[in-house]
Amino acid sequence: MKLVCALKDHPFSDTEETLGVVLYDGATTENRGSVGGAIKYQIVRDKLVPAARAWDFLSLALSVTAADLAGHRSESPDGWTREFELEVAVVDPVFWNSQREFVNHLLGFLTTDKWQVGFLGGGIHPTPDPEPGRPIEDSVVLLSGGLDSLVGAIDLVAAGHRPVAVSHTVRGDAENQRHFAQVIGGGLRHLQINHNAQVPDPETPPSQRARSLIFLACGVLAATALERYHAGEGVTLYVCENGFISINPPLTDARLGSLSTRTTHPEFLGLVQELLNAAGLRVRIENPYQVKTKGEMLKECEDQDLLLANAIRSISCGRYKHFGYKHCGRCVPCLVRRAAFLKSGVEDDTEYIYEHLGRDDEDHSGFDDVRSVAMAILEVRASGIQDWVGTALSTAALGDVQTLEAMVCRGLEELDSLLKAHGVK
Q1: Rounded Cα–Cα distance for residues 322 and 224 (Å)
Q2: What span, in angstroms and rounded, lies between the C-alpha atoms of 368 and 139?
Q3: Is the separation of the CB atoms in 393 and 314 below 8 Å?
Q4: Rounded CA gap, 423 and 337, in Å?
Q5: Kind and range of the H or E element at 247?
Q6: How far lies 204's CA from each of 33, 207, 260, 342, in Å?
Q7: pLDDT tens for residues 85-121?
Q8: CATH 3.40.50 location in the chain
Q9: What mean pLDDT comes out for the span 388-402?
Q10: At what angle do helices 402-421 and 332-344 cross, to 10 degrees?
Q11: 198 with 29: CB under 8 angstroms?
């Protein structure tokens, strides 16, 4: 599939073979896509002045998101791996074309597709406001509305940091994101961004593989707008996620494809960091919880009172929208959430659709995710963590993986305690 993603004044050539996607505006014809329509106006309204290559990185992320939405896995030869040819309008095409092979590798790792990305001129770089706003905060934290990002923001403020909170909004999350930003540290500066991707004939259900790239790119954009960045200093972008979900090892052989995403995998974050370094963007990505389980994050949170008052509002469920904006209680993210509450001793008042996991039927103990967790626990007991974790940690980029393996073991122990508490055998 071929896509050309550029500003609305680009001379798009509309054909059946090529999808034109308008960046930072609405689609100009019904057979074109659009993405990022409100972002430019939001940044200009706030008088922020991000770096040119941060805009370029966001343009790449938006374009990849549009492609992810437009590409149908069912139409690929193997029913899964898609092939994309993508052209993206940027301010600095010479630099970005020098990184083409690296970008293709990064995207392939993230989405498990085949990418051929090229860059053309004509990218976005808004004229700075005569009196630009340069926020004095010291860092940026991604605030998703989930439990991990809530703990992360609380801990950062408790440690004396003053981060800008950046959120990528989807329906069901926006209000919680605003609430968390308001109650942490007496109120954090908060930037909420939505990609607003629209394409003709989107894949249903939509793929979410590329969404984390948008989230990171928005964080980078905000980081390069800070006063300290303009003064020549570096800025830390905090991506707070428990290590078990970050690694997200396939629980069974059947989960190697669609069910094992890599959105905050340390290798992926490392690849993004390499790209930022090559671009000369002084933004350092850090996950402070890479070797902690979710239960450990909750138990060690620096402000237990604030956590207790707000944890119930956080969202973890992988099918939250599908279940009427309620937690299902049985998908892997819900199971990890429930296990974390049990481990930490923090009271879990979350309403779960499938509360009693021990019921012997297909909706509870017999549900695929519950059975997959139980099977993973048995396999690790039988053959050890190294054989089970497999390719999730088999890369030289991670260095010594023993600490990560130990964390994954502790994450499985938390899940084992949850299943035992519900009588799942």
Answers
A1: 36
A2: 40
A3: no
A4: 18
A5: helix 243-247
A6: 16, 8, 19, 35
A7: 999 999 999 999 999 999 999 999 999 899 999 999 9
A8: 139-286
A9: 71
A10: 90
A11: no
Helix (H, G, I), strand (E, B) or coil at 322: coil
Locate the DSSP E strands across 369-423.
Answer: none
Domain 139-286, classified CATH 3.40.50, yes or no = yes
What per-residue confidence (pLDDT) applies to 258?
A: 42
- Show the DSSP H helices in 34-146 as ranges: 39-45, 52-70, 93-98, 100-111
For residue 2, what are the contacts with CB-CB under 8 A and spacing of at least 6? 17, 18, 19, 84, 85, 86, 87
Measured torsion, CA atoms of residues 167, 73, 267, 276, in degrees rounded to the nearest 10: -60
33 - beta bridge partners?
21
Q: How far apart are CA 191 and CA 236, in angstroms?
A: 16
**Which pLDDT score is estimated for 384?**
87
What's the CA gap between 179 and 158, in Å, rounded? Answer: 18
Residue 172 in this model has a pLDDT that exceeds 70: no
Residue 54 CA to residue 45 CA, distance in Å, equals: 18
Average confidence (pLDDT) over 19-28: 93
Between 401 and 189, where is the model more confident?
189
d(CA 400, CA 398): 6
Tell me the pLDDT tens digit for each residue of 40-80.
999 999 999 999 999 999 999 999 999 999 998 888 888 88
Q: CA-CA distance, 191 to 219, in Å (whole number)?
A: 9
Paired residues of 88 in beta bridges: 5, 119
Q: Is the pTM of this model over 0.70?
A: yes
CA–CA distance, 338 with 295 (Å, rounded to integer): 9
The CA-atom distances, in angstroms, between 29 and each of 26, 275, 399 are: 9, 34, 49
Residue 241's pLDDT band, with cuts at 50, 70 and 90, is very high
Q: Which two tokens stand for residue 361?
A: 């039927």
Average pLDDT over residues 131-138: 94
Mean pLDDT value across residues 277-303 = 97
The identity of residue 239, as a single letter, is: V
pLDDT (average), residues 352-381:
94
Backbone phi, then psi, for 193, in 5-degree steps? Answer: -130, 140
